[in-house]
Amino acid sequence: MADADLRATSIREVREKISELCPSVAERAKRSSWGLKALLLLLHVVFVGTVFVLDPTLVRRTREEPWYTAAYLVLLLVTLVQYILASGSSPGYVIDAMRAGSELHATFINTSMISKQSTSKNGSLTPISRNQLERLNSRTNSSSWLQQVMNLYPPGSSSRDWTCPYCNVIQPPRSKHCHDCDKCVLQFDHHCVWLGTCIGLKNHCRFWWYIFEETILSVWTVVLYISFLRSDIDKECYLALTNQTTYELARRKRVLYLRGVPDRVYPFSKGICRNLYTFCCSREKFYILEEVPPMEELQARARPYTWREIISCRCC
């Protein structure tokens, strides 16, 4: 027991010296925690806002199906609120449980002592002073917590085996000292850097609800980005396969040399294989000017392919 007390005392002295030499370490850590929280909230807004700005189809879908965007924004708001609540929640510290238990025990002691005041011979009550009650409470509080915790361990356990060497409290089962919070936490799970707090008995449920909502929001946001990028990739691939320019695709009806050309006929296409080769591998040293095919040829391309033409790779 003496060795344990000596070890706990030396650890406390070292921590006190470090605190004296670096008084602003805790303040800087607290400021950095708040900075990280603000950064995460800002990233949520930036990522969501970017997909709405870049993807015109999403804006159009919002006009056509407002419920879709409304559901997404509600999920975003709920996730952010859950993050704020989880980051500001208490994990359930051992010292708080001790104080709560002490207050209940003190109330019980006061009530029982008042009800059992000694009676004088003439039947009058003998009052008990406040100092006497305070001394009685201070003696019984520590012993009651020790007895309560030791009852949770198997018989024969020693209190010094479960005494925290950092904050010198008796740890109930599943408790652990967190060096970031500098307190013992009930049902310690881990210290979440992103939330800036420990995850323990009192906020474990809230933490998992936040993880659940954040996961759905992240997957939904990734789907929106993939849809946006896929539309651009499909457009670029389509242009390469048909030997078109973006201008010809977007302004087909306004381009003079494309007027009258049947739909799904691409005047400058040389077949899929040659189009891809020209788009990806060709390195022409001279300027190549392409002529517009005659209308008869373009109308002939509009007819469906026969099996013979498909076998002979006319489409390629």
From TrEMBL:
GO biological process entries: protein targeting to membrane
Bilayer disposition of the protein: Multi-pass membrane protein
Protein name: S-acyltransferase
Catalyzed reactions: L-cysteinyl-[protein] + hexadecanoyl-CoA = S-hexadecanoyl-L-cysteinyl-[protein] + CoA
Species of origin: Ananas comosus (Pineapple)
The gene coding this protein: LOC109707375
A cellular component term, taken from the record's GO annotations: endoplasmic reticulum
Short name of any one Pfam family annotated for the protein: DHHC
Compartmental location: Endomembrane system
Family membership: Belongs to the DHHC palmitoyltransferase family.
Residue intervals of the Palmitoyltransferase DHHC domain: 162-236
Recorded domain comment: The DHHC domain is required for palmitoyltransferase activity.
GO molecular function: protein-cysteine S-palmitoyltransferase activity
